[in-house]
């Protein structure tokens, strides 16, 4: 029979906590990749700040733009995973709340049974209040379910003009950092005097004699 229908899987069913841990691990992995991409992007930007316009600089710029676009894709994926993790955490909180609600309901049932035994009848008013509370809890559960089941839009392709502008902004940051390492500011170069020792003139020797 197992050959026809397959053996029943004995693997443990995934839990909400394990699913959250799995997503968080993926987020950490993407963070590592983003750190590596940032280092690569900084290297390209440093090269661009030292190169003159030409085919070589254009080629480096194209590579930098591709790295920048890859970074945006990873950032988008990380944001989606973080949202998924948050949604599952909300589901876990709702599950805990529902467990507490069921515990309360069980306690109310025991109380109602005890009241029936003591007074020989059920208090209708208390039953109605319990039903009202259950209806309110169901409404809250439905609202939470609707909230966590919403879909999230995937961002559209990144515009190359936007990437170019961001790359240029990074270049300005690198140039600003390089300016801080210069020994003499550029606006003071022309004002620095240059002293040149010259041999005394012949007329000066005669006057001295």
UniProtKB/TrEMBL annotation:
<dbReference type="GO" id="GO:0032511">
    <property type="term" value="P:late endosome to vacuole transport via multivesicular body sorting pathway"/>
</dbReference>
<comment type="similarity">
    <text>Belongs to the SNF7 family.</text>
</comment>
<dbReference type="Pfam" id="PF03357">
    <property type="entry name" value="Snf7"/>
</dbReference>
<keyword id="KW-0175">Coiled coil</keyword>
<dbReference type="GO" id="GO:0005771">
    <property type="term" value="C:multivesicular body"/>
</dbReference>
<protein>
    <submittedName>
        <fullName>Charged multivesicular body protein 5</fullName>
    </submittedName>
</protein>
<dbReference type="GO" id="GO:0006900">
    <property type="term" value="P:vesicle budding from membrane"/>
</dbReference>
<dbReference type="InterPro" id="IPR005024">
    <property type="entry name" value="Snf7_fam"/>
</dbReference>
